[in-house]
Amino acid sequence: MAKISPLSRFWGLLKIYKPEIRQIYFYGVLIGLVNLSLPLGIQAIISYLQTGELSSSWVILVGIVLMGIAVSGTFQVMQLRIVENIQQNIFARSSMEFAFRLPRINVQQLDKIHAPELVNRFFDTLTIQKGLPKILIDFSLASFQIIFGMLLLAIYSPYFIVLGLFLLLVLWLMVKFTGPQGLKTSISESKYKYQLVHWLEELGRTQRSFKVSSKTNFHLRKADDITLDYLKHRESHFKVLLLQFKSFVSFKVLIAAGLLILGGILVYQQQLNIGQFVAAEIVIILIINSVEKLLRVLDSIYDVLTAFDKIGFVTDMNLDQNGGKKTVTPEQASTIALTKVNFSYPDNKGKVLKDLTLSIPSQSRVIFRGKSGGGKSTLLQVIAGILPVSSGDILLNGVPYHNYDKESFNSNVGLVFESNQIFEGTIKENITLGREVDENYFKEILDALEISDYIGQQADGVETLMDSGGRRTPRSIGQKILIARAICHQPGLLLLENPLQNIPKEETHAIIDYLTDPKHNWTLVVIADDDYWVEKSTQVITL
Ligand SMILES: Nc1ncnc2c1ncn2[C@@H]1O[C@H](COP(=O)(O)OP(=O)(O)OP(=O)(O)O)[C@@H](O)[C@H]1O
């Protein structure tokens, strides 16, 4: 897929907020116009003062100037409200987008990426939030101010038009030639920022290991290396900013010199009176300030474009394809058939599954055994529909996997992986994942897995909070909660990877008896080495 440029992403976002942005610009134009009342009013006031009279017209003029300032302020408040709405909306949109996408990202895309690290990119939403008012308000305000200022000056003398156009050309050329480089350096700077955060997170995760071996300073050296890379790239970015700043300073001098000299000549030649000259000076100061504002906004533009690039990395990841329309009847026992299935990991040349043909009848109890690295876990993930086969056929109840509606297919599967899948939430949330579970059945599985007593001892029962990874929960309880999660919706296909590893031996028989009980409709596939599993199984497949 072609990479989308950060600028296109930015335009894409602006499109969503077209009506709001139109309003912001409308107010921007009004503010630009109203702001001209200041120099024009002052010009008129000076003219009145020069006549030596303190007439009521003078009072009216002063009133108009003050009103101009107040009205322009009111418009700015309106702009702020609109931008705030956009900012809030961007945050909500981004949080939903991340929450929607994360579980659906194709696992092969995540093969070499630590998914929690990916989530760090969410913080770039805040960069976009913060940068947006600057870009939408300050940038537009400054641009309108420059344009209107130039137009007003043009009324005083057509020479100002030529000067104005020339200066705009210089400004445009400067941005055109330094802009892309600024974006490039900003993106590489941020790459190392994320690398550093990732390393610090890894340090946090494995804190105890580093605590006992902190003498090697390995953790510091690694952080130092990344920091040095970051600083190197930040320096390159700063150099671009500096170049732009220097060019802008020259530009400012150029504007000031051009406008002042031209103004002076025009007064000298009596084409401008002194009131007009003062007004022109005020407009010139406004223009110079606006140019300064544009310069400051440029840095925010880089930040925002870089943020789009970072977030785009997540939002561009392929999601699971929602294959077909066929649905799986809930609680339907599943028959699985594999014919000449091959599977290899993207950067692993050898085939993990080679021409594998096997059949798993409905309601059977199948055990996968075999040497380490034999492909048991891979096969389980293929059967779960998580890993797509490279070639061959895989059927559920006689229908190819890809013909199923993904959501319906997934809702029929119960899974336990070896990796720790406990998240921060209550025991109940960890078991049900928000699914409606029949109360009697829920109680039955807690009893069968022998976790009722543990839950009963907790102050908040099933509402007791578990921490991330279930750190403070006994490991056997954590594992039982994961088994409860896999069976609480009575799946038709139950896939378990070494589900009883942390459970005391004396408790495992009762759990195996329960899981293999013919009263359950599910087809059970287990990776296990325990002889009792084999005893209770209907089929053993060695890989
Ligand atoms: N994400 C991956 N990318 C590349 N190769 C992988 C990946 N996951 C597993 N492998 C490789 O595929 C082969 C099969 O691994 P798999 O985990 O399926 O075996 P296993 O029988 O479950 O092993 P174990 O009993 O040790 O868990 C191994 O050689 C492993 O190194």
Automatic annotation (TrEMBL):
All copies of domain ABC transmembrane type-1, residue ranges: 26-303
Pfam families: ABC_membrane, ABC_tran
Transmembrane segments: 24-46, 58-78, 159-175, 249-268, 274-291
InterPro entries listed in its UniProt record: ABC1_TM_dom, ABC1_TM_sf, ABC_transporter-like_ATP-bd, P-loop_NTPase, Type_1_exporter
Compartments, as annotated in UniProt: Cell membrane
Domain of life where this protein originates: Bacteria
Matching PROSITE patterns: ABC_TM1F, ABC_TRANSPORTER_2
Keywords from the UniProt entry: Membrane, Transmembrane, Transmembrane helix
Bilayer topology: Multi-pass membrane protein
Domain ABC transporter: from-to ranges: 336-543
Protein name: Peptidase domain-containing ABC transporter
Species this chain originates from: Echinicola jeungdonensis
